[in-house]
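Entry 12.
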Amino acid sequence: MFARIAMVGRALLVLAGTASFASAQNQITFEQYDALCRRLATVEQELAATQAMISVERLPATYPASLHTPAPAAAAPPVELESLSASVKKLQDDAKTIKYPNVTVNGVFQADTGAFDQDAASLATLGDLQDGADFRRARLSAKGGIAPNMNYFFQMDFGFFGRPTFTDVWVETTHLPYLGTVRVGQWKQPFSLEVVSSFRYTTFLERSLLFQPFTPFRHLGIGFYNHNEAQSATWAASVFRSGQDQFGGDIGDNGGVSMAARATYLPWYDEPSGGRYYLHVGGGYFLSDPDNDVSRFATIPEFFVGEVAPGAVGTSQVAVPGAANGTHFFVDTGNIPTTISNRFGAECLWVHGPLSWQTEAMFASVDRIDGSNVTLPGAYSQVGCFLTGEHRPYDRTIGAIDRVKPFEDFFRVRTNRGICTGLGAWEVATRWSWIDLNDDTVQGGQLTDLTAGLNWYMNAYAKVQLNYIHAFLDNPTFGDSETGIYAARMQMDF
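Predicted 3D structure (tokens):
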């Protein structure tokens, strides 16, 4: 029992020290503050249970008689209860000293290269696809707390065809009754596991064929998200403008307001293993009322590389950004006169230690202005395995995939005993992805991608990815064709 008291005491002292350090740095976010409070509540429960157990009158009768006999003075516990209570109070006081506003700076870049291998039919259908290299993303962001119940995020991408563009720009109020957290600004709207999970944690270079044509992704609006106390279920909804330029703007007086909603559930989550085994299921709904009664469904073949075409140089002889060249859409409906479209999605993620299986299915039901309706479906399924034994972590508060943390980082150094090496984490994966944009007079084509991937996580913040994508395209005009894509990426984020 005294060992139990000592354990609780040491935990309290560690927590108090953590809070003091965070306070001194003045960089703690509200998420960290909230986690600290949860840990404090757990320790206080342990303390209360310990105090009850050492009370002779409250010990169960089934306990050995020796436990009902007060211990001699010489056997006093290593940590006095008074000092434990003092530690609790100190932790509470330290948590109150967090200063607002605070800020944390983050960044990420992805350097991509790729080459295309086309058959004769692919050349006739798509033209000569150009090999190349570019920065797929290059972002800087600032995030933090404005007050104990208000957070912010501001992120710019400098890899968007050579000019800055807004990505996530929002402010949110947390811990509200019923709604949980309410957010205003531009962010990834609640629809699809691939959308709400960060691109930093994707298994392949690009999201599936479903991502571009079916999901709302980032828009300017207002919404909320929440989860239950057990963190086994999440729910979220939002209302937003349908269009978006590179700075979050959208205008139009004929429609233009859409909504999205998503709910998830964890039927199984293994707490003792730290979430190495779990099953996630979910569903989403996206009601799109497009600007100016026009919608379009199109996608790239799960890889993109491009450049800004040279523009006018003027008297300065310095080129300015002009048209953008790069991997174009493989399937494309073109503009569809639309009154409204309803999009539905179902998702599943199963993780069993190093093995994982992820799948989603979606379809869009499009009501055209002429009164007819077309249905456009798609799906993907992928399997991955960590050769070094890691697993795909999961964020239970938002129902999303989290950061992979290798058992050991990559390193290679010379010591007196020879060369020492850390392997990092290694993962192999494969994906089938399919979309059909043909229905009635809408003939956008059908595309099936088979992808093989190899991921090397050098540490939790740097990874190398290799993908081979084989695209089977059925074009309504040119017929069947095949395209092979060899692609690689170096990613670093902080």
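Annotation: Residues 1-5, 11-26, 55-71, 73-77 have pLDDT under 50 and may be disordered. The chain has seven helices and 25 strands.
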